[in-house]
Amino acid sequence: MVVRPKIKANESLQSYMTRICRANHWRYLGFKAHVTKYVAPLNSTKLNDRKAISTFLAKKTGFSEVSKLVDVWLLVNRHRSYFDMSRIKICPICYEDGCEAPAYWSFNSYLCCVQHECLMVDSCHSCNQRYTNEGLIDLQCDYCHTPIRDNKPKQVEATDYYSRKIYDLFASKNMEPEDYLSCVTTEITQSELELTLMKSLVSNFSNDLSTSKRHARRHSAIELLYQKQLLCGTISRNERMLNAEVARAVTELYRRGESDLGRIIQTVRPLLEDPRAAFLRKALQAFILSCPPELDQLRVGVRLLEQLFCAEKGYYEALLRTNFSSDMIIAPGTPAILARSAIKLIKS
User: Fold this and answer.
1) Where do the TniQ domain residues begin and end (predicted)?
2) pLDDT band at 316 (very low <50, low <70, confident <90, very high)
3) Which of 227-241, 253-267, 301-315 has the lowest mean pLDDT?
4) Domain-by-domain residue ranges, the chain?
5) DSSP 269
6) Is the pLDDT of residue 332 over 60?
7) 334 phi and psi, to 5 degrees?
8) How does DSSP assign 222-238, residue by residue?
9) Which one has a higher pLDDT value, 316 or 157?
10) Cβ–Cβ < 8 Å for 148, 140
11) Distance between CA atoms of 12 and 17, rounded to whole angstroms?
12) Are 137 and 28 contacting, i.e. CB atoms less than 8 angstroms apart?
């Protein structure tokens, strides 16, 4: 290693390795093969492998500060679903300034650069091919050789809530790796749960965690992902809009022939037990208590009522069998009542 570039504040370990390759005129695949052969697989998520790679780079560069760089693959080890490592996202404006990439750019939900109010980019504007590590080393598209600096990102009228939260948490703080991971575990886990629930809601309670959904996301344009994420952030912060969105989704599925609320929300129901899902649980409570007349055949299971209204197990079923047996419909193993009787039951 002839050239040992100095470490820059807030850059990731992956960014530093890219700059090492650029400074020494190395190809990424050659560097990756060398590290894999003599140390550990470069993209391994095993803790011992990550430590070995960091120690190796610190020894070769002579900079002990390498151990203080945030290793994205170490974050992936703990929170894999928060990252899509098949997509390299950058802000061309930021990248032109210093050619370093902070770790928070790798989050799935960081879709727009808050500093420059523009969309992140993952592909060349000339040929639409995805950016690669080789391309980042050469500061150009690996396919058509268009310079990254020529990629003018699309400006946005507003940065979405989730991108802004990530920026506020990490951009201005030079965190130790342990503190970074701790912040991801607490703060980002909260927003990721909320975003998962909101994406499901605006998609009529579809399963956003399914394999097909994840595959579709990898091939979706960042602008489309941003538009959906912007909508989710806007609705989740407005109680009136959130209640209206729940009513819209349930009503639409009811009109398609689904008459059981438990089955309508089955993709998000396991997550409703989490205290951090209280915002959606509250919106579902509001929907049940104001169920519109046109949904007169909508059924609500007593187990779902207990879950949403935090009642003891068997409480609503006992009241139901005593006072509303004529309105009870027995689904397989689950007593359920029409929504209009559920309202009376809750208020009794």
Assistant:
1) 3-119
2) confident
3) 301-315
4) 13-150, 239-347
5) G
6) no
7) -135, 110
8) HHHHHHHHHHHHHHHT-
9) 157
10) yes
11) 9
12) yes
